[in-house]
Structure formats: C-alpha cells, structure tokens
Amino acid sequence: MKTVVDILEERISAAMAAVGSVGSPQVSGQSGFPAIVRPAADAQFGDYQVNGVMALAKKMKTNPKQLAEKVLEKIDVADICEKPEVAGPGFINLKLKPDFVAQNLLQINIDNKRLGIEKTDRPQTVVVDFSCPNVAKQMHVGHLRSTIIGDCICRLLEFEGHKVIRQNHIGDWGTALGMVILGLWHMCMAEKRGGKPYYENDIEDLKVYANNKQELKNICNRIRIRHEEDWEEDFIEWRGDGKKRFKPFLDNLKTREDSAIWEKITILYQYVNLLEESLVGLGLTTITRVKKKSYKKDENPFEYISIPYESLSRHITAMMQNIDDKDNEQEKDAWERIRKISLKYFHEIYRILNVKLSMEDVRGESDYRKNLSSTVNDLLRHNTAVKSNEAICIFPDGFKTKEGKPLPFIIQKSDGAYLYATTDLAALRYRVKELKADKIIYVTDARQKQHFEMLFKVAKMAGWLKDGQVFHVMFGSVLGDDGKPLKTRSGENVKLKELLDEAVERAKAVVEQKNSDLPDEEKKEIAKAVGIGAVKYADFSNNRTSDYVFSFDKMLAMEGNTAPYMQYAYARIKSIERKAISKEVDVEKELSKIKSLDLAERAELDLAKQLVRYGEAVESAADDYRPNYLTSYLYELAQKFSTFYTTCPVLDAAPAKRPTRLLLCDLTARTIEHGLRKLLGIEVPKQM
RNA sequence: GCGCCCGUAGCUCAGCUGGAUAGAGCAACGGAUUUCUAAUCCGUAGGUCAGAGGUUCGAAUCCCCUCGGGCGUACCA
Questions:
Q1: Which nucleotide is nearest to A545 (CA to C1')?
Q2: Which residues, in sequence order, are CB contacts of A637 under 8 Å at separation 6+?
Q3: N or C end of chain A: smaller count of CB under 10 Å?
C-alpha cells in the first residue's frame, strides 16, 4: 500500500505537469513538477497542503493563485479527499474523506506484519558501521549515540526491505594496541612492587596537579624514574627483554578471571592515556629498545634509543605492527585475551540496550591488519599517495592546514605505523569488494566529519567508490550539565553500564509507587523496559546533529514526550482487552467481523488519520536517517490516543460503535508496538 | 588564521528540497477522577527565531556582515 502522501504527490504532480506544459513548454523540460505535499501546518487548513504550485508559478513567471486554480481543475483526488481548496498565496488544501480513512485503516488492519507499509522496490546491500567501542575501555555515554542510532537505522532499512550488513568496527589496533601492552606492563610491575597499585596513586596525583606545571613535572619525573628502574631490572639475557617478570606475567594472565582483568585493564588504559596527556611539553625522555635490522647469532638483537616518554605507547605500537611474528606470540595472546574480554562486556551492554549486534558483526580494525601494506602500496602505485616528511600521504583537494598548505591524509607514519585512516581505507575497500555494498553508512560523531570527507575523497581518487555510495551520518557531542563537552579524560566519563543501572533503578521506584500490587518479577521487567526505554528514547527524540546535553534527570524523566508515555498508552489498551472478558465483550470476534468503520467523533477521526500516517513517518525517518521523525510521530499518536481514550468509552460504548473503537485501540497498540519494539528496540510491557 | 557546526519560550528541544498566525515537553497558573490504569486529559500564560543587511509574492530556513559558543586543522581515534 502506498502512503497517502505519495499518492497525493503523484496525482497532483501529474495535474501540475498538465497545466505547466500547456502554458510554458520550456518549463516542462525540467525535472518535473513536484507537488510538495506536506502535512498541513494547521489543522484548520485540513490534513495536507500542497506547496509546490507557488514554486512552479515562479518558474513560469505567472500568478500563483491563478495557477493553483488551474491545477485544481485537473486534480483527480475525489476518491481520497473532500473538494480541494485554494488558499493564501497559492496553497492547495486537502482534507481526507472519513470514508477513505476508514477504508485505508481496514486495509492496514488486514496486514498484520507490515501494517500496510510496502517494501522498497529497489532493495540494496547496505553496510552500516556503528557502535565501534575501544578495546580495554569502558563504554561511556559517548558510545550510546552511535550504538543506538546505528541500530535504529539498521532496523529501519531492514524493514524497508534492504539487505543490511552491520559492522562493529571496534578500536582494537593502532595506538590502542600499544596502550594495552604498556598497561599490562604497568599491571605487572605494580604487582611486583605490591601494596596499593602505584598507578592508582599516580592517577590521583596527575589529576590534582593537572594545572600546576612544575609539580606535574616532578610527578612525571618520579614516575619515569620508577619506570626505568623496573624496566632495567626486568631481564635475563639482555637489558629490557622482559624475560624475568613481564613474560612470565603474560603467561600467568591465562589463569586469571575475566572480570578481574577487565576491571584493572580499563583503569590502566586510562592511566596510560592520562600520563601521556600530562607529559606533553614536559620534555622528559626514556630509554627503549628497537630490533636491529641485522644481527649475529648470540648477539643482542636489540639496540637502545632515547625517545620522548609520552610517545612510548606509540613506539610499542610500531613494534607490535608485526604481532603475528613468532617473537610476539605472548603479546599477541595477551592482546587477544583483552580483546575477547572487552567484547564480552560490550555485548552485555548491547543485550541490555536491546541492540541487535552480535559477535558475527564484529569486524575490528585488527581484522584489516594484513591488508594495510597492500592498501598503501596500491595508492603509491596509482600515484595517489606520495611520501612527505617520511610519512606516506595523500593530498586531496580542498583541505588546508593551519598554515594554508595542503592537508595530508596520512596513511603511514614516519615510524612505519599505520593509522585509522589506513584501516578505514582497507575496511572501505573490503566493504565494496567483498561485501558488495551498494551503500555504506558511517554512524559517528560530528567531530570526525573532516576525516570522513577526506576518506571518501581519497577513496574516490583511487577509484574505489562511486558518487553517492557513502554517507557520514553524524551526531552531536555529549555535553555536560555545564554545556561544555564531556571530555574523555579519565574519571570524567560516565560509564554506560552505571547509567543504565540507575535508569532501571529509578524506573523501579516509580513502578513500586504506581503499581505496588504487581508480582515482583513483573515489576522488574517493567522497570527494565521503562528505564532503558527512557534513556534510548531521550536520545532518539533529539535532533541527531545537535549536541547532546547529558543529564540524568532529563534522560530519566518519565513524563511528557518520553518512552513511558507511549508504553503507558499501550498498557491501557492491553488493560481494556483484559477487562473485556468481565464485561462479556468478545474482542476477537468483534474485530474479525468488522466490515466498516464509524468515525463520527472528532477524537476517533483524528486518531484514525494519525494511524494512516505511520508509513509516512517510517519513510521519512529512514530516508534521512533521523529517528526523531519516528519518535515525534509515535508521540503524536499516543497523544491522540489519550484524547480518544478520555472522550470515547470503548467497552461501554453502544454495541454499534464498539467494533470501530476496538479496532482503533488494537491498531494503535500494534503501531506503538511496531514502532517501539521493532524499529527502536524499546520494549512494550502489557502492564505498567 | 582557515574550515565546519550551532545560537528558536525561564529550562530542554522540534520545526522535513523556502510556505500560511514559529510548535512540543518540563517548570508556572486554572480546571477534570463514583465510569476501560491520573505515568492521563482540557485550558491559560510565555517569542525582536543572537543582531544588522540582502535575495522574493513569502525567510527560523538561502546569501553577506557582526557578536557569542563548540569542533577540527601532518604523523591520536
């Protein structure tokens, strides 16, 4: 079934074409005559309005009002609308016939699965890249948006009939790798030293003195001296070979519990990050080793160099580039363990969030590690990439540095390490070539806009992409209550798990207060649905591109335009169905016999018209990747239902009126359920 | 400096290739419950769409300038 707005658009565009081509042949040669049918701005104008006539009049250099009159003569919508009217400077107002609404509703009613919404006639293979948390890091509120918006986009596209391939491009390569190895090293040394782990004290000190440069330098130097002591001491054959302590520690890691490792590694990751940030500009150096290009048997294969202390993890990253080598076996095992544990925790969050992402959807940066050199080489061969300051770069047009020079897209650093630009290119190629993607969608925050613009441009330069094949679906940053961006500095992140737990807890308190008679088990289920639903809905209902002000109170408020409002409407309908038995009303029977509807009451007709529009809302949300179009539709639906509910008794209605009202209830429930559960991944309890 | 995004009611935000008198929620105020769940409904009040100019039948929306905020800007993601 086509949406009403599409039918109207088609018919009125045809009428406009007929009128436009008569008076002005040159206009007809252009790209058609869009009627631009929109929901009416004000109910007094009817249900839909045509905006396109005035634009056409402008093109034809004619009077819009007169043109609208001419179009009116050609319009054939008598089966759908009351007589259309010209209004204002050249609008055409359309009002649906109650009969048409009733017939439409009866058709939707028959289609249990899709509520009368057609599948696309041009199905595509769409790759959606979303969520993408970082290994060894707790997911925080910043990951919430990518995860649930991405999931919603997948659900919308799947429902439209596209083949969707989810890709969880987790951060498990590049710098993350070096930081985890360094973090594990600190874990080892802290355990050797015993007592309260030194990194916990260091984190506190670094935070306290973040703005006192002199003291910060003293602290960092103290850390560095301890670091070098530990490093110097840890060897059997050659300085710093790690055979005395670190290597046995890595072996021992296998015997430890996941949860114990997870808790520590997330803190250590923060530690390494915070230490490196603190070190910037302090000028401290440290000793490390690099493998010689050639060496004799029994000779120390390493030589020792001095590097800036803050670049140590990056140095390790470069060394670990060959993680698949035999020498690095232990590091590789440890790394895979950390990766596995991290994924376990991410998937726990996905389960709680009701997000459809499985282990099969995980294809992280590390999965492309074997394609990185060929990606770079191919670009060098095409002369797309060039060497500049020892780094391998591509200079796409239109991007400039601070100094006004061309801005490079760096795909290999001067130390030989690859970057996320390289993995992104390799991933993009994989998606086009192997996954046969017609379309690739990246769901990330707006700060990466320039990166993606460059990525897409480079991929086009290399001939790997067609126009219009990739989209960056971006969203705003997460802000704190003070309106400033929530920095990813350690400690300031709000852990997603804790946020979700609190949401459920608050919901539980409300359920307890409103409906204390329910069995405990049910109260728990309701609290989960309401709490998680509220958090997700708060995010969906915001404009995607705006910044996101994070506030417990706002997210967890359960009044007004929130998920619980819709869940409540649903629960009321289910309650009517339960009550029907005691009132000797056979709902199933009345619904199955229904042949026509009686939409006499204002509230009935308003609700019916809203129900007819569900397909339009889904379509616009999917077309623009904007879940908030869907949430505002559902909110309006619930509002119209609530008005209907208070003015139109259902079970106590006259027997002749009752089937219509039962159908309105049933269809409202099905639409809310479909929108919330199927498309937004929000549960709808039968009671609350 | 340059590039991108943003500025709408006291607060949080919608506003869909430019469309009619700019809409919601929260907070405030007034009303509604012997009747299917009041996590509700009905109503009142609240605006120089940051400011100035331009484009046109018509601008919150497009262009220019100013002010204010954010992000990015060669080896982090």
A1: B5
A2: A566, A607, A610, A611, A614, A668, A671, A672
A3: N
